[in-house]
Structures are given as C-alpha cells and as structure tokens.
Amino acid sequence: MTAKKLVGQIHLWLGLASGLLVFVVATTGCILAFEQEIKSVLRPYQFMEPEVNKTLMAPSKLESIAEKLVHGKPAKGIIYGGSGRTAIVQFYGAAPDYYYQVYINPYTGKVLNVQDEETDFFHFILHGHYYLWLPETIGQSVVAYGTLVFTILLVTGLVLWWPKNFKKANRDKSFKIKWSAKWRRVNYDLHNVPGFYALLFSLLLAVTGLIFGLEWFSNSIYWATTGGKTIPEYKQQFSDTTVARQFIAPIDVVWQQLSKNKPETAGIYVSCPEKPSETISAYVNYVPGTYYKLDYYTFDQQTLKPIAVEGPYAGPYAKAGLGDKFRRMNYDIHTGAILSLPGKIVAFCASLICATLPITGFIIWWGRRKKAKKQSKKALAKPVSMKSDYQPVSRIS
Predict the structure, then answer these.
(1) Which of 106, 165, 271, 341 could pair covalently with 281 via S-S, beta carbons 3.0-4.6 A apart?
(2) DSSP code of residue 300
(3) Separation CA 9–CA 333 (nearest Å)
(4) pTM of the model
(5) Total structural domains in the chain?
(6) Is residue 257 part of a domain?
C-alpha cells in the first residue's frame, strides 16, 4: 500500500467515524456566527437613545431593582454596554441551572425586559456546539476530540487533494467545479474544491476550538506563543475580612473609578460579591460586541485595594504580552468577530463548507461502495472459458 493510499484510508475511516459530530458542530457554528446580529433584531431593548443631561444610575441601584424581579437569587454582575446600550444585570447559578438577564434603562431605572437565557434558542444551539446536548462532562470531551479528528481530516484531505503536477487539466480539476458533469462528479468537486478554499479558515476554527476543549492542547499553544511560558495555576482571590469595610457601596466606587477615563463607547462590567470574603471583579471593554480588548481588574471589597492576579486574563490589554493577547483573542477569532462583520461572514462560510464535507464525503464513499459491488457481481456472472491442459498424444504403431 502506497503512502497516499494509507492517507486515503485514514481520511475515509476517520471521516465516517466523526461525520455526524462534524456536521452538528459546524451547523451550530453557522448559526452562532450571527448570534449578536440576530439578537439585535429580536431584542431591540438592548439599545436606546442616550439621555441628554442625565447621569447613569449606580450599579448598586440597578442591582436592587433587578433583585426584586428575580426573587431569591442574588445578582452576579452588572454590564454597562456603553453609549446607546441598556444596562444588563446578570443572575446565574447551578444545581439547578439558571441564567437570567435583566435589561434596564441605566438613566431612569425602568426595567425593559427579563430574559430567561436557559430557554433561549441560542442557549440551546450553544449547548449543541459545545456538548452535542450531552451531559457537559461527557459532551465536552466528545466534541473536543472530535474536533481533533477533524483537524487530522483537514490535513489528510490536503494531501489527497494535492495534484501530481499543476498542468492545466489538473488545475481545473483541483480548483474548479465542473457543473456540466454528472452529479457524482459534481459531488466529488463539491467535496474537494470548496474544502480546499476553506482549508485555512477551517483549520483556524478547529485550532481555536481545541484551545477551549483540550487543556493539554491549550497549554501547548500558550507555551508556543509566549516563548515557553506556562499558564499560571488559577488561585481564588479573597478580600481581607479582618478590616472594616471602608465604603458603603464598593461596587459603585469601582464603577465610578473605571468610568473616569474610559471612552464613551466602551463598556464596563462590575461583579456583585455575595460574601465579605469575595473580591470585586471588573473590566473595561473597549470594543463592545467582542471580548479581547479588555482591561481586567480585581479589588478587595473592604478596602478597594487592587489585587494582583496572574494569567492571560489579568491587567490592562495594552500591557499584555503577545501570547496573552492571542489567548484573549481566541474566542473572537473563533467566531470571526475579531474582524467585525466581514470576519463573521468568513466564519459562517467556512463553517457551512465544513458542514457539507461529511455529506459529500459519505456520498463519495457510498457511490464507490455500490460500484465495487456491481463490478463484483458482474465478475461472478461472467462465464469462464474452460480450457483443458490435456493435449492428445498420437499413438505410435
């Protein structure tokens, strides 16, 4: 067996084994690519006209308003989305899972909507994309290793696609779809040609997905992009409960401090600690709608002294190293949001092509399988000519 035939066998059987998983993950990825754009239409209460000569309400007041609507559940954090956006008070927890978002006019305190995110369509699609709608502890590993298999399929697919030479006839077969051919040939071209054009973007989607799903892969990429550094082990930070609280509403003070120097379009997030030992987490988002260009802060809620935190998601974005910036960009690269709408269109098209590859690949395999069976039946039905090896010997008298 030649090396290319071996690659072909690997490509075939891995493709058949992972086809359904790739189809589901890629299809849900297509839908999630435009999640924010679709929600902006379905949830118009996310946006509002800025109020002239009015100041924004402090987070503690928004927290109090929202907690009256979500009975028995403490607020976890408050998002000020920037100019032209409403404020969002978040509630979430586990056992049982719940996730609510309360949209409030930050100038007047008027509640615009209470959204149960657990029943949201995109929440359902997200679970399919991350876990295949399986229990999270099982589904995450299934999707992660399925994505790893898909990465191997992309590489082996390139090997199989690569023409022996780049003469015109081979170039046409490799780079063009012959629409005038029979449907089997068109299907073959639909598997090879779009698959090649989307290869780079498909690999990018797969690699950024693997960073979320596989810890060893994530650590390896971080090591390679930071020049040999390792991701610091996560350490829970605590506020100093041995001193008296110096501020009546510490989250309001944090919000006021972060609001002083930020651009009008930037958003702010402030967490709402439940216990005296918890810290206040906050960030300034300079590009609302994305998650990479954030300045992260952690404060002691008693004294509001900054607490040093290590890792890629700590400190101002401008002071982060190249590898840490890349890690912060990972989600926005995965969704295409890093390049705004054009990037999302590219991510959508690449995901759509990835979704078609298992289908066209299966049709190719099934067609060849049926063809091989027909040829086998014809060979069995064909009459065999009986030629005797016996040669008569003339009798000598």
Answers:
(1) 271
(2) E
(3) 32
(4) 0.88
(5) 2
(6) yes
Candidate from 49-53, 65-69, 76-80, 91-95 with smallest mean pLDDT: 49-53
102: left (phi over 0), alpha (psi -120 to 50) or beta: beta
Element (H, E) at 80: strand 77-80
Structure tokens at 171: 């170039």
d(CA 32, CA 34): 5
The per-residue pLDDT for range 266-316, each reduced to its tens digit, is: 999 999 999 999 999 999 999 999 999 999 999 999 999 999 999 999 999
Residues 275, 358, single domain; the answer is no
Shared domain for 203 and 133, answered yes or no, is yes
Domain extent for 261: 52-107+229-320
- In the listed set 320, 345, 379, which residue is the last one of a domain according to the structure? 320
Structure-token match 């000020």, residue found:
80
CA distance 244 to 246: 6
- The 10 Å CB-count burial string (b at 16+, else e) for 249-264 is ebbbbbbeebeeebee
Alpha helices in 104-214 (DSSP H): 121-131, 136-161, 168-175, 183-197, 199-213
211 and 128 inside one domain? yes
Question: DSSP string spanning 156-177?
Answer: HHHHHH--SS--HHHHHHHH--
